[in-house]
Amino acid sequence: MPVNRQVYLDHAAATPVDDDVLAAMQPFFAAQFYNPSANYLAAQAVRHDLEAARASVAACLGARTGEIIFTAGGTESDNLAISGVMMQHQGANVVVSAIEHDAVLEAAHPFDCRLAAVDARGLLDLADLESRIDEQTVLVSVMYANNEVGTIQPIRQVALLLERLRTARRQAGNSLPLYLHTDACQAANYLDLHVSRLGVDLMTLNGGKIYGPKQSGVLYVSSRVRLQPLIRGGGQERGLRSGTENVAAAVGFAKALELAQARRHEEVRRLGELQRYAFEQCATQLPTAVINGSTKHRLPNNLHLTLPGQDNERLLVELDERGILAAAGSACSASNEEPSHVLRAMGLSDDAAQASLRLTMGRTTTEADVEAVVYTLAELLG
Ligand SMILES: Cc1ncc(COP(=O)(O)O)c(C=O)c1O
Fold first, then answer.
1. Which residues pair with 183 in a beta bridge?
2. Rounded to whole angstroms, how far apart are CA atoms 198 and 131?
3. Rg value, the chain, Cα
């Protein structure tokens, strides 16, 4: 069954912009180009549309409009969350999970940063997390879903743990805050984002993973949290992110999030079935393949395989030549030669990491795509 069309299996890296999102953005590049801070009526109409986009995002998150800060993507939101909290507290520390995206790890690195372990399934070890939090910890950052192996982290349990620790702190007269940040970039297509149900104080989202524009994103900042800005200037976005607002990106992001959340139950069902089918196909046609990461607590679009003895870079080239686009580990670290820190944290050897592929499905993925990739891999493995 040779592939005679493109099979795109890298949705964790990028998603195409949805037609309705593009249509919603289009006016802000042309007729409605005005600066939303200007005073004339035409500009006020643009301001109104920007605020409507903010209200739409807030509604998806169960948040207040004033708690939504538009940014230029996941990396910026993560940096604002981490540095924005940490810069205010000399001598304090931040605890992050060992499998965070580099946008969190690198933002946390300049501060006193402790890593919380994950188990072999790629799930946060809650006891280890608790052991790393002390009376000087002001921020805990745990991603909602991992971008490499797709594992869904127990955010609600982390929130309950922090609530218990906050109570103990109050009783001990410690007035330092203890905030919870979650990077939900990979979660927004499939999971509940309601911030009070989750119990988070800060949440990162980006448009490029939810069929919205790249370099669009949001940081949810609870009204309880005090943040220092990284970008200073004219005071837009409540002074937390100065610069003339990218209204097209904000409107596009809001539309993409609205659509993603409206479709998420159906996508979880459809992709969950495809994922099960893919795992079955792998078991029969790629008997040496090992599935990495919990299959239970996992995004429905993620397949992550180790093919023992194989070189993932070579496999990716061979797949590409046959029209199948996939990834080794995360796209953001694809250019550095280091084996994935996520797979290392899960206890995989460097050789196993080097033999691993990430296949991430999306809205247009079909059963035929799954069959094509498994068939092609079986052929390549000979
Ligand atoms: C979990 C996670 N966080 C952050 C980012 C960075 O987002 P952006 O590329 O929009 O800056 C990504 C992108 O791969 C991601 O998957």
1. 204
2. 22
3. 21
Question: Tell me: the pLDDT tens digits for 72-91?
Answer: 999 999 999 999 999 999 99
Decide: helix, strand or coil at residue 69.
strand
Q: Is 101 in the pocket of ligand 1 (CB under 6 A)?
A: yes
- Exposure of 338 by Cβ count < 10 A (0-12 exposed, 13-18 middle, 19+ buried)? exposed
Please work out whether the CB of residue 103 comes within 6 Å of at least one atom of ligand 1. Answer: yes
Give the whole-angstrom CA distance, residue 354 versus residue 368.
27
Distance 376 CA to ligand 1 centre (A): 29
For 328-349, how does the pLDDT look when each residue is reduced to its tens digit (9 = 90+)? Answer: 964 444 455 688 999 999 999 9
Distance CA(244)–CA(235), nearest Å, equals 9
Query: Among the atoms of ligand 1, which is closest to the Cα of residue 207?
Result: 10
What distance in Å separates the CA atoms of residue 343 and residue 306, rounded to the nearest whole number?
10
- For the chain, the residue count is 382
- Report the nearest-CA residue for atom 14 of ligand 1: 13
∠ CA(36), CA(215), CA(228), 5° rounding? 70
Ligand 1 atom with minimal separation from the 74 CA: 7
301 lines ligand 1 (CB under 6 A): no
- Angle value at C-alpha 122, between 209 and 135, nearest 5 degrees: 95
| CB of 332 shorter than 6 A to ligand 1 | yes
Kindly state the helix (H) or strand (E) to which residue 39 belongs, with its residue range. Answer: none
Atom from ligand 1 closest to the CA of residue 75 = 11
219 φ/ψ sector (left φ>0, alpha ψ -120 to 50, else beta): beta
Smallest CA separation from ligand 1 atom 4, residue? 74
Q: Is the CB of 122 under 6 A from ligand 1?
A: no
| High-pLDDT (> 70) share of the chain, % | 97
Helix (H, G, I), strand (E, B), or coil: what is residue 199? coil
CA-nearest of 102, 178, 100 to 139 is 178
